[in-house]
Sequence to fold (351 residues):
Amino acid sequence: MRITAVTCVKNEGPFLLEWIAFNQLIGVTDFLFYSNDCTDGTAELLDALASRGLVTHLPNPAVGRNYQMEALKDAAHQPVVQEADWIWVADVDEFLNIHTGDHTIPALIEACRDPKAISISFQFFANDGVSAFVDAPVIAQFQRSHNPDIWCDETAIEVKSLVRNDFPLKYYGAHRPFFKKNLEPRKYPRWCDGSGRDVPHKFLVAANPRRIRKFPAKGSRDLATLNHYALRSLDSYLVKNDRGDVNRENRAFDDSYWRQRNDPAYEDLSIARYLPDLNRALDALKSDPEIAGLHETCVKLHREKRDQLLAQPAYQDMRAQLLAASTLPPQEEALLEDLGLETGLATGLTE
Fold:
C-alpha cells in the first residue's frame, strides 16, 4: 500500500525528522513537502532528504497568501500523489495516533472496512508547563489535553482526513476532501470517522458552511485520534508567533489561541506506545552525518531566533503574559464567571 503524506512547512526544521520517522512507523511510504520562505535550515534539510529519495520537496507555488490551498491544488497533479493508494494531508505538528491492530494506517483502514475517506478528530495537546525548547520527541514531552469530547465550548471538533485514490475528488481541502455538488447520491463515497462510523450526512455533503471541517467528537476516537501539538514549548511558540503560518503570512497568534489550546484537564499517554520504535528510527536517520548535521543546524537556528525575539520588549511582554495566562479556556472561564463561581485563574507554566 502506497500512502503519501502531503504537508506545507515554514521554519519547522527542528521537528521534521520526528514527523517523518513517526509517519513512516504508521505506514506512510512517500512524503510531499512544500516549503516557503524558510530561514532556519528547513529547506536545506528537506533537500538533503530528497536527494536520498526519502521525500519529495517542492517550493510552495502560491503567489499570494493562500499557501496551503495553492499547494494542495498543485499536489493533486504530482505523481507521488497520483500514484498513491491513500493521501494523508496533515501538518508537522499533527500526529495520527492509531489505537487498533498494529497501530498503523493499514490497520486503521482495515478496521474501518476500507472506506474512501476517513476523517479523524483533533485532540489539542496543552503546553503542559514546558517553557524551554528541548531537542527531543514532541510526542514524549506533552501529555495533557482538553476533554477529548469537548474543546472550549464546542462538542464539534475539527478533523483531518485520509483519502483513498478513487474518491470522487473535486479538490483536496486542508481538513477534508470535497466532491462535486451535483454528484448523484448513489455515488456518494463511503466516508467514516475515527471509530469507523459513517460521518454525519451534512458533513459528507458540506451542507453547513460552519461545519464543513468538523463534526461531534463524542464516540469518534475508538480507532484513531489526531494528536495536535499546536503550542509545543513556550520557546517554540514564540518562534511560531514570529513566523506566522502556512495559511496567513505573518499572522500573530494572540493569547486566545494559546489559551484555547492550553487546557491540561485530561492526561493521555496512549501515543507513548510508539516511542521505542520512534527513537530507533530517529537514530537511524541521524546515523547519516549530513542529515544529523543539518538537523543540528535547524536546532541551533531555532534557539538563536528565540534569543533574538526575547531581546525585544514586545516578546518579553508576550512571554510574561503567557506565563501568567489561565489554563482555563476563555469560554470556560466566562461561563464560570457567569455562574458566579471562582475560576482560580490557574496557570500552567513555570520558569
